[in-house]
Design goal:
mainly alpha; 2 helices; 72% helix; elongated
């Protein structure tokens, strides 16, 4: 990035793209982890409504 990127409007498109890709990977990992926990809870016989609440509570902690 040249300067602060704010006054000229220029930015490093490659760095921006890499950052978006990094964010996407973290989001994908978070979704996959959540689905894994939901599947494990379902396998343990926990109803989906309760499992969703448990997963949400875990995310808040």
């Amino acid at each position: 990035m040249r300067g602060n990127g704010m006054s000229t409007g220029t930015y490093d498109a490659d760095a921006y793209g890499r950052e978006l890709a990094r964010i996407r990977r973290h989001q994908d990992a978070a979704v996959n982890a959540r689905l894994g926990v939901l599947r494990a809870l379902a396998a343990a016989g926990i109803p989906s409504e309760r499992a969703g609440g448990l997963v949400t509570a875990m995310a808040i902690e």
